[in-house]
Amino acid sequence: LLRSAPPFFSGTTSLGKETKVAAICELLDDCGFVKKYQPTEEMACRYFVQEYCRGTRMAECKRKEYFQQHGTQPSDEIMPTGKNILVRQKS
Ligand code: SF4
Question: Which of 52, 72, 78 to mutate to test ligand 1, by most ligand atoms within 8 A of the CB atom?
Answer without folding.
Answer: 52
